[in-house]
What does this fold into?
Amino acid sequence: MKISTLVFSFLVMACTASAQFVLVNSPGSIAGSYNYGTASFGAAVNSGSWTADCVFVDNGTATPTLGCGSVVNGAEVAGKIAFVDRGTCSFSEKAANAEAAGAIAVVIFNNAAGAGPMGMGATAGFTVTVPVVSLSYEDGQAIRAELANGPVNMTIGNVIFPNNIGTNRANVMNAPVGVIPVEQAEASLFSVTPAAVVLNLGTDDATNIAVDAKIEYSPLGGSTTTEVYNESGTIALVAAGDTSEILGFADYVPVEGAGVYSIKYSVAAENPDNPLVQSDNEYTSQFVLSENIYCKGGWDLVENKQRTTIYRRPTSSTKYEFLAGFDMPVGVGYRLDSISFEIATNADSLAILEPGKVNAYIYEWIDANNDSTAQTEELVILGYAPVDSFDDPSTRFGFVKVPILEYVDFEEGYVVTEDNIKLFVGVRYEGDEEVFFGFDEDYDQTIYFNTLAQTDIDLPYIGVTSWDGSNKPDITNGFIFSSNGVFILGAISTTLFVSKVESPSAEKKPIAASIEVFPNPTASFLTVETELLNNTRTVEYTIRDVSGRMVFSTEKDVNGTYDKAQFDVSRLAAGQYFLTLKTAAGSTTRPFAVKR
It folds into this structure.
């Protein structure tokens, strides 16, 4: 792949910026810096500094702190930082109502236990000029409790301290993937090389900085935690003025088996940080050895699905595909079962998306010239996973899990027939709406990309906006997002589910002694004549286009071994199609073309 960069749009973002903070100044019981999410509207957090006491909005309804209406306690809100709870109406509406009441900044609390800071997309029709940030549910509850006892004073924005070192998600080494099946990890000698970049955002030099990396293991579903790795080192000096130094440690190969591995980094300088900004002195990353899951990003252990912190799409085109690469050293004995991902839209709801416009694909990458760089012609389409509907199309955000169909005969599940294969999983949108796919920005691969990545499989994602004539993504000219000249290396959160099979090498027996499809190509009618090996009661015929989208399906009573069928394809667009004949004994597929 020839790496290029592309501008991106985002829908949801949750992060902690390097020199910008959300600080509680008082009372002391909750004072300190807080992880926060940003909004795509309002004043940028890094454009200034806002300090004031805080107050909840009251819109005079049964749920007054939701802020979904005119604020009735404007005298209290004016000149203050407004607190608002998430829910019912849009983030933009909440912020606009608070600003209209005189708030100088807005903080929106998440509304479900375990829910972290959320990114906030803009909604048309509302004008917001003050900064807007979000906090987690737990942080919101703690601040709410203290506010009931007296004033809470907060600062949002740029704050500079003499002593302020730290690290963050973009400056620690994550494992090469967030989730990998344990058998695949063992076969590939999967390892992680802990490392951390220490940042100095203060005005004074930082000296004799202790850096620690510890790894703790917990079995899947278990509560016992065991320390399995403990390394430490020292950086003599990180100069003042937004500078940094990196310290790496010995490789760690997980041998404890399936479970959750937490990498805990901590940094501490000779002269301690101001207590208000010590929260970035520690950072914890996780990877999971699973039974049957591959995922480039992190795993949400509470929801038991891939973690998504942001939704992205290229600004250059509404039609695009994101790919995630995985090594599979043990292929024989496995089947590729299903793909899951997160999707969002700027439209009113997911119901606006036409059937057949959202699909997922499985590709094998055969590195023919051994140059570790993926080329379009080196991809082979193995499977296809069409998305025909959403669980709740009335919402703007959705979790999708779809079965993989073999690309040739469209049977469920692709049985792998060889070891040591490289796979790309792609999620694709081919419509005209603004559609976004989920990424995990917390699983940042900046250090891994810059130091250890060897092939295109190691990239956290690859984007494309075009495809060749055989429906393969133009990965040769793929892109990675860039902002201010820096790669955006959070991982795509697409997940591949695999399973064991009992007879991986058994060949499928044909279900027909002969099958003829004519004329081919055709401009009007397609005739199919079949002689079956065994009697069958019914035959199902399905026609799919080159993307795998079903365009026609019917079932016929046969009660014998012979059938002849004719289909009117005159209304189909010119191009390549696949006709699949299916009986209780199996299925077989023949390609045909429609000409004009």
